């Protein structure tokens, strides 16, 4: 087959332009761009996507590359038409600016919606990332009998659980390489009293950890950006900025910590040695936090050599670590199950221990287990941000449709302005395909310029939308103001490229259809600049379809249905004449010549009475 195609291509290339093969070769060559586009799509879906990756971004890059290559091939093959298009593009600077300004509307709306979605994703997921910080998996067991942090206290377990878990993860063949560190902690709900200011803040969190926990959990940072050393003493502590603001505390103040449980007078005094910003380390509970040493927390709670919370840190940093969460959590649960010697329940095939397989269903465990709470929180926030982004994209679709109509009107206006010029070009030998390519080349230049400008304008549109959203949110949620929203302003290169690709494709396809329509002009009318006559309406065809539908055929052509129409031979058969008289619709009755063999009649509206 390949040899046959090559031989035919050779014959067509050697054929004379006036011969039949030459005419066929020109027709085939006119469809070469379409054939190349279809072949490129078949190549992608046929196997190229599985090699380079089947992501949407990769497909968009591929489409833009194919479109660019096809356009360059057409321009190199028809250089004269391309030079004419380039001259028309640069001839009128004001007209070029107006056309680009009109064409960029759709791209600007798409770019603004995508950038808004990226910013909302950053805003929503920031709380999830900062709330858990570098604690990519957490190990705890709920205790519903006492009151404590997040509604119920955590059960305390021996220090040997932390040691066994750390050893088991480091020796795990599936998760050992993905774990950076394992950190034991104590988290308790307390009330904090600033003795210097006389202010009490209830519902705060006391968080105790190792002094060297910063290697796994990150450093504390002050408002100036400097690192607050975590090697403070047992009588010292670090407040986050939310607690310091509620207590009106400053560095050097003495705070007293009281237990949130009733019937206890347990308390400890701490000196504030730093105020940390609410970042990945200072916003652990997204509330008022006081960070102390693990030894101080053990003395305060009365649980020496114990902890009630373990943070597991993965490789990949703050945001990239959650991709290893499921593997690490399952490996940690296998270690914990082996440590507590749990067994499989025979009732409903559920496990009474920790979840060691994604397909199993477990009951609420009474032993410490590892949970991927950070990943679940990030996924939930991402889904919410995507929903809002899609909502803005749907709203902007009306502007995109208006932009498409504007593109059609702009190029029809350009065609009307150059109507005489196009008519003279057609009169001296320019073919209809060349005229189509002339407008297509010019439109391609407009499309590229408008897409680039539209992407940049879309960034400004997104910023204005987010500023308005910040003002609305600040009225509903006092802790969320426009400065926090605008600080999350995120511009993703992938989103900008997606907007550019969408803008180019929408404009290119619209211009292609418009160019084909413009090329079907009448040469005489174009030279004389005479407007095109209105297109006639096929009234009789519409009446025939509307009337001769279903059982109405018998009332329109009774002879045809009853077999009374004479079917003789075509030669020597005398044609019949009949008229249709309609009552509901006033159609002028006129004689219609009907041949009995090739029977065709534009009559029969409901209520027609044929007269033969």
**Global mean pLDDT:** 77
Largest sheet: 6 strands, mixed, barrel
Put simply, the count of helices is 21
CA-to-CA gap between the ends?
A: 60 Å
Q: How many structural domains are formed by the residues? A: 3
Name the poorly predicted regions. Answer: 147-152, 343-350, 559-612
Kindly state the number of beta strands: 18
Radius of gyration: 38 Å
Query: Outline, from the CA principal axes?
Result: elongated
Task: Classify the helix fraction into a percent range.
Answer: 40-55%
What class, by secondary structure content?
alpha+beta
Give, in spatial order, the strands making up the sheet with the most strands.
5-6-12-9-11-10
Q: Can you characterise this structure?
A:
The protein has 612 residues and is an alpha+beta fold. The chain has three domains: 94-134 and 385-535, no CATH class; 137-371, no CATH class; 539-611, no CATH class. 53% of the residues lie in helices and 15% in strands. It is built from 21 helices and 18 strands. A six-stranded mixed β-barrel has the order 5-6-12-9-11-10. The protein has a three-stranded antiparallel beta sheet with strand order 17-16-18, with no helix packed on it. A two-stranded antiparallel sheet has the order 2-3. α15 packs antiparallel against α17 (493-519).
């Amino acid at each position: 087959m390949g040899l046959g195609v090559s031989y035919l291509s050779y014959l067509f290339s050697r054929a004379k332009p006036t011969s039949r093969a030459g005419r066929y070769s020109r027709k085939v060559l006119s469809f070469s761009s379409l054939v190349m586009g279809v072949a490129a799509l078949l190549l992608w879906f046929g196997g190229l996507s599985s090699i380079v990756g089947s992501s949407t971004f990769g497909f968009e890059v591929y489409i833009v590359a194919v479109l660019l290559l096809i356009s360059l091939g057409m321009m190199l093959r028809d250089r004269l038409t391309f030079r004419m298009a380039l001259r028309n593009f640069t001839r009128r600077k004001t007209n070029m600016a107006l056309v680009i300004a009109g064409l960029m509307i759709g791209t600007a709306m798409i770019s603004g919606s995508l950038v808004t979605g990226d910013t909302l994703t950053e805003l929503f997921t920031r709380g999830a990332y900062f709330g858990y910080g570098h604690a990519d998996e957490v190990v705890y067991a709920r205790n519903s009998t006492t009151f404590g942090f997040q509604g119920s206290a955590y059960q305390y377990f021996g220090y040997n659980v932390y040691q066994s878990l750390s050893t088991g993860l480091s020796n795990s063949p599936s998760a050992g390489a993905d774990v950076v560190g394992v950190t034991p902690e104590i988290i308790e709900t307390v009330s904090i009293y600033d003795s210097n200011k006389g202010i009490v803040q209830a519902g705060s969190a006391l968080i105790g950890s190792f002094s060297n926990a910063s290697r796994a959990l990150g450093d504390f940072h002050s408002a100036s950006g400097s690192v607050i050393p975590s090697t403070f003493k047992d009588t010292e502590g670090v407040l986050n900025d939310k607690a310091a603001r509620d207590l009106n505390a400053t560095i050097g103040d003495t705070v007293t910590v009281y237990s949130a449980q009733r019937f206890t007078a347990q308390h400890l005094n701490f000196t504030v040695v730093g105020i940390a910003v609410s970042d990945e380390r200072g916003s652990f509970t997204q509330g008022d936090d006081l960070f102390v040493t693990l030894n101080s927390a053990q003395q305060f709670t009365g649980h020496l050599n114990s902890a009630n919370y373990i943070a597991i840190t993965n490789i990949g940093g703050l945001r990239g670590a959650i991709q290893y969460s499921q593997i690490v959590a399952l490996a940690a649960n296998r270690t914990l199950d082996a440590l507590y010697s749990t067994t499989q329940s025979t009732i409903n095939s559920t496990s009474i221990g920790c979840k060691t397989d994604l397909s199993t269903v477990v009951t609420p465990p009474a032993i410490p287990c590892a949970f991927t709470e950070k990943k679940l929180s990030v996924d939930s926030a991402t889904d919410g941000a995507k929903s809002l982004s899609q909502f803005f994209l749907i709203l902007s679709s009306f502007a995109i449709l208006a932009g498409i109509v504007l593109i059609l009107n702009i190029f029809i206006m350009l065609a009307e302005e150059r109507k005489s010029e196009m008519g003279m070009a057609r009169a001296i030998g320019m073919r209809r395909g060349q005229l189509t390519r002339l407008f297509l080349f010019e439109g391609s230049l407009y499309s590229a310029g408008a897409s680039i400008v539209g992407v940049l304008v879309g960034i400004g549109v997104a910023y204005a939308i987010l500023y308005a959203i910040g003002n609305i949110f600040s009225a509903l949620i006092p802790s969320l103001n426009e400065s926090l929203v605008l600080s999350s302003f995120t511009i993703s290169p992938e989103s900008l490229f997606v907007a550019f690709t969408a803008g180019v494709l929408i404009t290119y396809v619209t211009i292609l259809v418009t160019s084909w329509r413009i090329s079907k002009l009448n040469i005489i009318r174009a030279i004389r600049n005479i407007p095109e006559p209105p297109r006639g309406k096929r009234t009789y065809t519409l009446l025939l379809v509307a009337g001769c539908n279903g059982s109405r055929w018998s009332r329109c052509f009774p002879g045809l249905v009853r077999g009374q129409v004479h079917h003789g031979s075509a030669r020597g058969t005398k044609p019949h004449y009949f008229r249709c008289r309609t009552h509901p619709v006033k159609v002028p009755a006129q004689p219609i010549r009907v041949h009995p063999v090739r029977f065709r009649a534009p009559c029969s509206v409901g209520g027609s009475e044929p007269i033969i």
